[in-house]
Amino acid sequence: MAKTAPRVGDIVFYQSYGTPQGEYESLGRAAVVTQVNSTGEDPSVGLCVLNPTGMFFNPEIEHDDSETPAGGTWRRRPMLPTFEYPGDGTYPRVRVYIGDTEVSG
Predict the structure, then answer these.
(1) How far apart are the first and last CA of the chain?
(2) Would strands 93-95 and 82-84 be described as parallel, antiparallel, or unpaired?
(3) Strand-strand pairing, 11-15 and 28-36
(4) Are 57 and 48 in contact (CB under 8 A)?
(5) What predicted TM-score, i.e. pTM, was given to this entire model?
(6) pLDDT tens-digit readout, 56-99
(7) Contact 102, 95 (CB under 8 A)
(8) How would you write 32-85 as a 3-class SS string?
């Protein structure tokens, strides 16, 4: 599965910064892409980040799809299940992706 360029309206993860003393850890938060600033290998986007206590907007967020993303960056959702319906009345086959790598078969 090839990586796709981010699009306005896509749901992605924003990695929060956390606090220096560790009172709050760096967490992945749901975010909506509001603008696409650049495309290519590491695209920059604008996000509306959805936090439990409210939303915040940032027009320039860098991309980081690594295993341990830096605070203040965005990444694609780690697990995206897709379903294949065989059409013969049986249950659909589930495919699970981590980033762009299929981890189930």
Answers:
(1) 14
(2) antiparallel
(3) antiparallel
(4) yes
(5) 0.69
(6) 999 999 999 888 899 999 998 765 555 555 566 666 566 677 66
(7) yes
(8) EEEEECCCCCCCCEEEEEEECCEEEEEEEEEECCCCCCCCCEEECCCECCEEEC
Measured distance CA(36)–CA(68) in Å, rounded: 23
Question: Tens digits of per-residue pLDDT, 30-50?
Answer: 999 999 998 777 789 999 999
* Closest residue by Cα to residue 12 from 89, 80, 95: 80
Q: How many CB atoms lie within 10 A of CB 28?
A: 15
Give per-residue pLDDT as tens, 5-31. 889 999 999 999 999 888 989 998 999
How many CA within 13 A on the CB side of residue 81?
Answer: 4
Name which of 4, 31, 35 is nearest 15 in CA terms.
31
